[in-house]
Amino acid sequence: MKTGGQLIVEALEANGVDRVYCVPGESYLAVLDALHDASIRTIVCRQEGGAAMMADSHGKLTGKPGICFVTRGPGATNASAGIHIAMQDSTPLIMFIGQVASHAREREAFQEVNYRAFFGDVAKWATEIDDPARIPEIVTRAFAVATSGRPGPVVISLPEDMLTALAEAPAALPHTAVETSPGAAEMAKLEELLANAKRPFVIVGGSRWSAASVSAFGDAAERWALPVGCSFRRQMLFDHLHPSYAGDVGIGPNPKLAAYIKQADLVLLVGGRFGEMPSSDYTLLKSPYPDQTLIHIHPDSGELGRVYRPTLAINASPEAFAHAFAQTKPRAVPVWAEETARLHGAYLEWSTPPESGPGPVQMGPIMKYLEAALPDDAILTNGAGNYATWIHRFHRFRRFATQAAPTSGSMGYGTPGAVAAKDLFPERTVVAFAGDGCFLMNGQEFATAVQYDLPIVVVVVNNGIYGTIRMHQEREYPGRVVATDLKNPDFAALARAYGGHGETVERTDDFPRAFERALASGKPSIVEIRLDPEAITPTRTLTDIREKR
What we know:
Distance between the termini: 73 Å
CATH class of the largest domain: Alpha Beta
Number of domains: 3
Helix content: 25-40%
Largest sheet: 6 strands, parallel
CATH topology of the largest domain: Rossmann fold
Mean pLDDT: 97
Strand order of the largest sheet: 3-2-4-5-7-6
């Protein structure tokens, strides 16, 4: 006989969980007690949104479900931002929520929420334990659901009495991974369509990739001389200095790249959904009927034909497809090889940072410095905001598992994402980028980095405004500024108050030494860049936008 709390922890151990992210709550004290005797590393966070985003970062970087525990009511609702990210980003994640005791349900008891209803639209599966003896079954099923087909978040509600009750249950067994692979007939059809193409293009995205499949796909792309783009915030899926790389298919893509995709006669979409952001509001590929011949590879059959009608639909994971595609080869030198080289050249030009801009701090030279200074295996995280354009456009990702950022466009992700990344990979450099508005949404997780001695570097790009909204505001309602100005703390002093290292950059030339001191400190660090708000994009100022220049 074991308590439900013990059964939860044993099921996690059986499924290979080595760390959990949590904010403690009285609603799941029995689980916390069971974790005391477990081999699982328990990382206590400062807010449930941060805990859920750490779990999402874990899922992105490892392909295994990130696990978080939060308490009922406000704890669960705080965490909902991370669940929404995991759903839109196809990230495997399992969140356990303490719940009111069974006898108190449906009385609007203290902090009671119906989690099946609340998370029904933003989770892949939301359920509640009603029999402690079924805990091993439900937890193992949660791992299968979170990782199979299109990965996503699972939410499990834990009534308090289910965790303290004693039950006899079978020992938990690990979930069985479900793989989907392309058939021989599908691969033959793909080769036929490619052989007849004149202007093909490949877009890689989604999850369920690995270092091995990324490498295999890169080899195949080179053999076929195919131009390849990465979907929004999936840039770690292809080496940016590979001769086939054509650029980021995200927000504000290179106009030359966008024009090529629209004029392509075949698009090979591997792993991704190609939603509103990467498709430029469904203009690069028209929905539901693309102008191009579309070959769509996705691990979830429900995604095939849901938004775009493909000419060839292949229900396969990117992992399996990449290895199958690596076994193919063109019958002759592809007619598009010169166009691929031209697109790569256009990408290199597009991703070369500008040297100048308004104000005393220039982001272009800073990005150029980071490109030279950061090792290829450095992990970059970020949330949302105009500052992220500098990463997406000018940082050249080289390796898998070097990027954690929300395709959902959620703010506040960079710092908690970096904390999880550094805990997973302590030997690697981890840099979080955040705007001033973005940082203060989950910046309290900097305290978590200090508590666990995780020396991340957070680069806070401080322009004193909610930059993206201000940009839209000036475009749509020029000169009518409201609700976008911010008065910020001294971020370097804030870092020191937490017990970390702080630097302030007020001139471009200050950044390299500030960044080097941050790394050398061995502490979690904040490097604040005080950027002129006029430098709203790499190519246009706020004044340009306001005056429609």
